[in-house]
UniProtKB/TrEMBL annotation:
This is D-ribose pyranase. It comes from Litorivicinus lipolyticus. The gene is rbsD. The lineage of its organism: Bacteria, Pseudomonadati, Pseudomonadota, Gammaproteobacteria, Oceanospirillales. One of its GO terms (cellular component) is cytosol. GO terms for biological process: D-ribose catabolic process. It catalyses: beta-D-ribopyranose = beta-D-ribofuranose.
Amino acid sequence: MKKTLLLNSALSRIVAEAGHGDLICVADTGLPIPAGPERIDLSVSPSLPSTLQLLNALSSELCVESITYAHELDLDSGQQTRLLSAISQGWSHALAADADTLPHEQFKQLTRQCKAIIRTGDFTPYYNVILRCGVPF
């Protein structure tokens, strides 16, 4: 039995199969999920699990070299601050500081290139992040 924060078998498999440069999206409940990427739907009820809880669990096993989120999240600086703070705590401050942002429509197009899209129970608009996998060396 695993003893890290990441216990979900589908998530563990995605992390184990991820290669350098692969994209993994952590999505709120409202993000449209295109055909192609694997859909891992973890949503149970509003805010369960939250994006921040999922990012915390993923950071225990996934190496990330960059992040991307939608410009529209900047409109709510409190939500943006929480997202970037969680990324800073889980990975590094440099990732959060150097985050790429795109208009939401372009963000949705980028999700087509993702290996997987993980749907949370988050009801916060635009609370989505694409993680670009890195290497631990």
